[in-house]
Amino acid sequence: MSGDRLKIILSLTSPLLIIITLFFGGIFYGLLQSLGYQPAIQKYDINFDAYYNVMFSERYAKLFWTGLGLNLWVSFVSTFLAAAFALFGALAIRKTFFAKTFCNFIYSLNLPMPHLVVAIGMIFVFSQSGLLARMSSQVGLIGSPSDFPILVKDKYGLGIILTYVWKESAFFFIILMSVLQSLGENFEELAQSLGANKWQRFRYVILPLIMPSLFSASIIVFAFSFGAYEVPALLGISYPQMLPVMAFEFFLNPDLNARSEGMALSIIIAMIVMILVIIYFWLIQSKIRKN
Amino acid sequence: MSDLKISHLYKNFSGMDRPVVNNVNLNIKAGELVALLGPSGCGKTTILKMITGLFQPDSGDIILDNTSLLPIVTEKRDVVMVFQNYLLFPYMNVNENVGFALKMKGINKDKIDEKVKDMLELVKLPDIGGRKPKQLSGGQQQRVALARALISKPKLLLLDEPLSNLDAHLRDEMRELIITIQQKLKVTTIFVTHDQEEAVLLADKIALIFDGKLQSYAPPKEYYECPINERAARFFGGVNFLKSTINNLNIETEIGLIIYNQKNKNDLLDNHLLAIRPENIKISKDNIFQKNCFSGIITSIIFSGTNTRYKIKIKDTILECSVQSLGIKGISENDKVFIYLPEDKLWGMNE
Ligand SMILES: Nc1ncnc2c1ncn2[C@@H]1O[C@H](COP(=O)(O)OP(=O)(O)O)[C@@H](O)[C@H]1O
Ligand SMILES: [Mg+2]
User: Fold this and answer.
1) pLDDT per position as a tens digit, A9-31
2) φ, ψ for residue B303 (rounded to 5)?
3) Which residues from chain B sit within 8 angstroms of residue A197, using beta carbons?
4) pLDDT score of A52 more than 80
5) What distance in Å separates the CA atoms of residue A252 and residue A254, rounded to the nearest whole number?
């Protein structure tokens, strides 16, 4: 018995060490750099200059705060839309065998597709020189392709949102389908027999039953889209600019002093996500305690 | 109080080789408590779901108070079904669960609270309104489900296997409660069960269903006294069968000639079965009986607490016979005894 336990602990130790080294080592090293500790360029003192610079200096403050606004906007809107889109899709087709199989297939294809590929697809289809713009000018819907609304590389991040909605709705869809499947239809049938119409069954039965899974999935998607770099890099503009892109540009800067700002910004991004997650768990806990 | 009339109801699911519900006809009077009885898979739940509107029948009609239910959607039928596993909404407390139907009707909160209180008192659970379903025992969940179903005063109450998930001791209690509430509210009720004892104890009338077909629809007593066929008789259990043929005015059985005078005497075909329940056979050590009397050997005696069961071999047939409490003094295994099959307790069946 105790021998088994020892074996388990020993066999877990080495992967655990690797994980701890990579994770906490990375955070620790990043934190140090963000605090200005850069032995490579003979900087050994610890201070919060980089944080101050990023958030409040005349040079970067505007870029940072508009970037933060854009980040929150893109993450909230794309998470919400992806969840809503997947939810209504899943509810609409779950009872029809053919549509269910078809959508499962399409979404299973979508899931492993790299974000970069989807982003390029967005440019190909939705940009002013893209497929839709050309086609609508061909059939005379618009005068010329440049009359097509700016959906990609626009200041509201529409192209980024569109990419995330398409990609992340696949994730939501697959989770929701399995949750709905495991719930079965009994609760809905019961509610119906108690007099609940279609809308009431959605509002008072389906939604509360799937809410826990929907919320957890939303947290994952939100955290991912808040910190991801490649889609905003490809489909975004230089002002306003999303925070991960800004961080990476600091990092690419040949001036090694800018590294501290890049790391500070990365830590800020991580902190914001962490705070949101903590608030979420706190809300859940207090709800449980209330009941 | 509402009358329900089910006529020529059929339902077939694709991929099934025969209809799941096959020409079922039932007339249920207002305020009656009726059992749908049959083995698992015979179509009982399917019938309930057609009455609620969750399934559409292939043909036939369901008429409640002279109006067909078929064109009406489930939520407007005033027919409430209590599902087999209670299905209390896990995210609502007991009060919210019980008040659900009224909330769906848009009734104001004070009024709902008042009614919820009444309903919880009716099911004898006055103090648990604030609890969540998972904090309740199985019996309590069942009561809450019942309260939730009855709060909107449905015209028809459908209970799917209401007792089968409960422990034996809770079952008796719950059964009493269902009868009490049903009589108090006088709601027309159909309940489904696969347990014949439960049906007999609860129902005013029993609809016996095999393979989607209604076998008979009668008060419980008739299933014991004059079952419709061998399968029905066997379903109610503990019956002796004798293969018989018609011999002039009498009936020739494996154990000898029997005088038979029941009302269906002239309907019996040449080859049929006679049934008699063990408790209706009389035994004696002495030859005291006048007619329908046979002699045999006791092959076993079992005392079961409330009665004593004898197996008696007559020619090549073994009949089971039961006598209340300790049985008959001075009879032991391998003794010769005389038995009497009372004319009014024999019942002949063609199938
Ligand atoms: N939605 C359905 N689709 C296909 N077959 C079904 C469906 N519901 C029930 N059945 C079949 O119909 C038969 C009767 O089911 P049911 O009415 O639930 O039986 P019971 O309640 O008497 O045990 C079963 O063989 C079952 O497999
Ligand atoms: Mg059933």
Assistant:
1) 888 888 888 888 888 888 888 89
2) -100, 125
3) 75, 104
4) yes
5) 6
Q: To test ligand 1's pocket by mutation, which of B45, B161, B213 has the most ligand atoms within 8 angstroms of CB?
A: B45
Mean pLDDT, chain A, integer:
88
Closest CA to B231 of B251, B208, B212: B208
Residues of A in contact with B103 (CB under 8 A): 204
> Which of the listed residues B10, B12, B13, B55 should we mutate to test ligand 1's pocket, taking the one with most ligand atoms within 8 A of CB?
B13
Q: Which residues from chain B sit within 8 angstroms of residue A95, using beta carbons?
A: none
Residue A289 confidence (pLDDT): 66
Task: Report how far residue B296's alpha carbon sits from residue B308's, in angstroms, rounded to the nearest whole number.
Answer: 17
Q: B108 vs B290, which has greater pLDDT?
A: B108
Query: Is B45 near ligand 1, meaning CB less than 6 Å away?
Result: yes
**Contacts with B146 from chain A: Cβ below 8 Å:** none
**Span from the CA of B45 to the centroid of ligand 2 (angstroms):** 4
% of chain A surpassing 70 pLDDT = 98
DSSP character at residue B137: -
Share of chain B above pLDDT 70, in %: 100
DSSP state of B175: H
In chain A, domain spans = 59-290
Determine the distance separating the centroid of ligand 1 and the alpha carbon of B16, expressed in angstroms. 10
Q: Say whether B105 and A205 touch across the interface (CB within 8 A).
A: no
**Between A100 and B206, where is the model more confident?**
B206
pLDDT of amino acid B236: 84
Residue with CA nearest ligand 1 atom 25 = B41
Q: Please state at what angle helix A258-290 crosses helix A61-93, rounded to 10 degrees.
A: 40
**Ligand showing the shortest atom-to-Cα distance for residue B49:** 1
B56 lines ligand 1 (CB under 6 A): no
- Model confidence at B60, pLDDT cuts 50, 70, 90, reads very high
d(Cα B300, Cα B305) in Å, to the nearest integer? 16
Query: B224 phi and psi, to 5 degrees?
Result: -90, -40
| Pocket lining: B308 vs ligand 1, CB cutoff 6 Å | no
pLDDT in tens, A158-180: 999 999 999 999 999 999 999 99
CA distance A291 to chain B (A): 8
Residue nearest to atom 14 of ligand 1 (CA): B43
Q: Tell me if A170 sits within 8 A of A110, measured CB to CB.
A: yes
Contact B104 A195 (CB under 8 A): yes
Look up the CATH number of domain A59-290: 1.10.3720.10
- Residue B271's Cβ-count burial label (10 Å; 0-12, 13-18, 19+) is exposed
Residue positions counted in chain A? 291
pLDDT tens-digit series, residues B149-166? 999 999 999 999 988 888
Q: Give ipTM to 2 decimals.
A: 0.82
Rounded CA separation B70/B61 (Å): 7
The Cα B194–Cα B214 span in angstroms is 14
Q: Does ligand 1 lie within 6 Å of residue B77's CB atom?
A: no
DSSP per-residue codes, A209-229: HHHHHHHHHHHHHHHHHHH--
